[in-house]
Amino acid sequence: MEKWLIQSIWIAVFGFLKEFRPGDPYIIQYLTNPPMNFTNQEVNQEIFPVSTYTCLGVTIIIFLITDYLYYKPIVVLNALSSFTVQILLIFTRSKTDMMVMEVFYGTMTSCKVAYFTYVYSKVDKKYYKTVSSHMKMACLLGRLFSALLAQTLIDNKILTVYYLNHLTLAGVTVSVFWAFGLPSIKSSIYFHQNFEHTHIKDNTDVNVSKPKTVCQRLWSDFIMAFTNRYVFQWSVWWALGTCIYYQCMAYFQSLWQEIYRNGTDLQVTNNGLVEAICTIISTLGVYLIGIITIPSWWLIGTLTFSQGLLLLIIAQEKLLSHAYVGYIMFGTFYHIMATAANCEVAKNIPADSYALVFGVNTFMSLLLQTCLTVVVNSPIGLMLDIRTQFYVYSGGCLIVGALFTVAALCSTYNTKTKPRIFTTLN
Predict the structure, then answer these.
(1) Burial per residue of 101-120, b for 16 or more beta-carbon CB atoms within 10 angstroms, e otherwise
(2) Which pLDDT tens digit goes with each residue over 68-123?
(3) Cα 110 from chain centre
(4) CA dist 232 to 225, 235, 344, Å?
(5) Contact (Cβ atoms closer than 8 angstroms) between residue 305 and residue 409
(6) Which residue has the higher pLDDT, 205 or 117?
(7) Would you tell me which CATH number, out of the four given (3.40.50.12780, 3.50.50.60, 1.10.10.10, 1.20.1250.20), belongs to the domain 213-418?
């Protein structure tokens, strides 16, 4: 087996392990029932927002030091943060403890950038597309397997929601050991380059020139990427679409609890099955988008607008089955659009710039999500109830979808009129 493939599989296994979290589909049930006994308001307005604020503050630092530290230490930090999250969830009970837990959860989320860029420093550029696919599929498989396992254990009364967190702890413990065993990096994209990548062409001292060279290279790659109008437009959607997606995903379970509490058609214990179905259909959607040709702007515009309509319906839904279906469709649409965005951006920037663009777009999405959280959830904001929150998220999707649909119309019009103008001039 080729060395690059072994390295890709090695890091992909970590991706599977880090996404093996059987307790996640039931986290709201865990926090709002014995032994935790928090109210929905406490969870939504005081506990959960902490991870969003932490993620925003830590992401920019993580991005800047990931390359300098040769990636692996940040991957290890990801695993250790996940381990700490589970320890606090299982063995602590106070609201302050849960807020500290969310700090580590936000740190864990921030460290994902290292996972998605680590392997780029280990393999040749011609394998980037293949290894990216391996990493994405590994994460999806981890989510799928853990969701199916959780649902099976709950349905057969083998484990309760409380003990699913112990199972998650077992998985993240393995991920810690696996992370320490990852192969070390000897060069990186910006700070520690191989000879063929270096930009220092004279006889100046390397230690003196390197900081300046790194800053120049970062700035040059940033300008090259974001002055490209096409890349900028896709990055705008990436930031907006990802912001709304993660905000909704953080509070969907709270909405399900609200629907269930008022009497509905299903048991809220079906969360694991719904997560598994969403993962399967999203994976199929991501695969299909790679083999069929759909104008990208139309895809983004119509699917984002459709997400807004789905959220509008879900916000006033009384049947849990309908809310579950809406959740599956919403998640699938996002993964399809995110895949399209990743591909379009990657095709129009140098391969070495992908980590930079990914980091910048992720930071902007977190900045927007933090602002949204402050306005919607925090004590200094509106402190909206859960259904009203989803009306707000729906409005955001509808506006973004409408804007990109207009962009699709303009793009189609320009494409059709340019040849006619050219013919007339000739």
Answers:
(1) bbbbbbbbbbbbbbbbbbbb
(2) 787 889 999 999 999 999 999 999 999 999 999 999 999 999 888 788 777 776 77
(3) 10
(4) 8, 5, 11
(5) no
(6) 117
(7) 1.20.1250.20
